[in-house]
């Protein structure tokens, strides 16, 4: 049915729909669009972070390592200080599954040692008639788990009366693999504690300098320039030398953590200052000031959360520097000291060129250092890209 055409000069007919008006009918979105528009900032960051496959894999790898340090006593085949005096500087053993064509399961061959009288080098040869099966979920060296209770349960153990040195032994016959696992607890946690100290100093000092400006900002910038102009290694050495030799290993550990945090806050403070210089002119900051909010509340509740994602990305990139700093100090003999064990202390066994030439497996502690540094860098790249999910 067609409406009649109005004659010339007559008003056009006007129709009004009696159906209820739906303001959302103007733009009908798909379920996927609704899900994205209603997602929180944190969820958007997670969706974008998952697309960064290398960063995701690095995050899983680091999570597994930090979970490992909680149960390192259970994972290590030997206790930290167990010595095998008959197997000093023993090279890594190979794991086999078949013996004379038959499947035996994971095992290693027993060894015999002969001393070379010309070079005084211990030469180890596998005894193909001595099959030593590897045991799992077994009883071995006793330990005190987290200092709470006694136990001797291990994930992997050598055969009864046998030996298992998957990464060789050091000059005292101690298993390198077990010491690397124990050393992860110190080397990985010192980065987290150090970045905590750095974060507190960087956010507080940089936040006050960026929010108030003036003379305080001028003094902070000059202090940062002075600290950044000093070469890092001599500064590390001088600060580490201040710690008394009579301190307990725990106090030295805390001292090294504070030193690493004191040296790393400058870059973070400048980043926080530059952000707050721009954000302090926003209207919501003026509204908070008119309502009587103090400077600490404005900085902590309104300004810093606005770029917290960038701070998290910065932290993941700064942690590797602290791990390397601890490794360098311990390698030079000015950081942690025995009986505390870290990856840097393990590398002190490989200071001599002759030792490296004869016993290259003592350099194995460098492998977890490299892997952790790369993982943190990849994770930082992924978090930095995901910090602004709308790009």
TrEMBL record:
Keyword Membrane among UniProt keywords: yes
Membrane-spanning parts: 54-76, 186-211, 250-272, 311-336, 356-379
Gene3D superfamilies: MetI-like
Domain (ABC transmembrane type-1) ranges: 184-380
Origin superkingdom: Bacteria
UniProt key word Transmembrane helix: yes
Major location category of this protein: membrane
Gene Ontology cellular-component annotations: plasma membrane
Keywords linked to the UniProt accession: Membrane, Transmembrane, Transmembrane helix, Transport
Protein family according to the UniProt entry: Belongs to the binding-protein-dependent transport system permease family.
Protein name (database record): Binding-protein-dependent transport systems inner membrane component
Naturally occurring in which organism (per UniProt): Sinorhizobium medicae
